[in-house]
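Collaborator request, handled under Task 6.
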Amino acid sequence: MNILSIRLLLINIVCIFFLFACSSATKQMANLSEPAPSKVPSKYQKEQIDRKYGMFIHFGINTFHNEEWTDGSLPVSSYNPTTIDAKQWVETAKNAGMKYIILVSKHHEGFCLWDSKYTEYDVASSPNKTNVVEAVAKECQKQGISLGLYYSLWDRKQNPDVKNVSLDSAYNQYMINHLNELMDITSKYTKVVEFWFDGSWAKPGYRWPFQEIYKTIKSREPQCQIGINWSIGKPDSPDDKDWTFNKEQIYPEKQKENDPIRYFPSDFRLGDPYLPANPDPKLFTYEGKTYYMPWESTVCMSGKWFYHTEDTTYKSIDELIDLYNIATAQDNILILNAPPNREGKMRDKDIEILVALKERLKL
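Structure tokens returned to the collaborator:
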């Protein structure tokens, strides 16, 4: 074999290797668009199941108005925490034996807890300009606890006319831009282990860009588990979005194996503030394929999600122990809500209860 033949052979080998690599990369990217069908938990689902116990942190403009849901009309100037004690928030979760935090980055009113270039309804336009998402991500990295983010798909500030289908394209891109901003911030410090999406009942499922959302996150954070509130649909009408009617149909105790996944693709089931059934089904279907989906319970320790001045009645330790045992059995997960107050600090009562609960549970 002469030198020219050897060179041609080497060029052919390199080309074949390059084509194979491109093909593998293309397949890998395609797989990011949806989970693989499976009757057992994936590697990252197992990691979520092993985390088992975490903290929900509802904090934002609602905190300063004794409100749970608002419509985007509250002035940015009314968001004015004395401080953002992210160190204390994360420390509280860690001292409680929790493995991760889910921070509400944007609730239904559209107020963003980070500096977003896509809206002025954010902390950067408020009296306290602390980038809360960044502060919490930094503390999670320092204290060795994982980070998840809640994000409301429904945005009553940016997309108030939800019946207008012609507005979907621009708003869908707005959400994708937000998700990339959030991951730009958090990736400097830590990995996001979970995205908790809410508000999907505001529009029919086909109008939400679920596949693009899933791929956007998984292409950057493949370990991140994605859940969408009220995940499972009715067998006879999985995509019907009449809220009052369908909520009655999809309580966890009504879910059965092989029921349809209402919001696909997603990795786990949600339906706050309900606990899983016993036995809890894990296998659900979409377009004839079966997917394993654990259940994550999200429950308030007191009566409200956001801080309210009159919210002073708490669940007892015994009640919380029962909740923990029910919610974390059967390879499921419990998230307890502990909302910071208007000073930007965790309430003393939350800390007291969480420490006592850890001791009783021997975590």
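The cover message to the collaborator said: "The longest strand covers residues 100-106. The domain at 40-361 is CATH 3.20.20.80 (TIM Barrel). Please let us know whether this matches your experimental observations."
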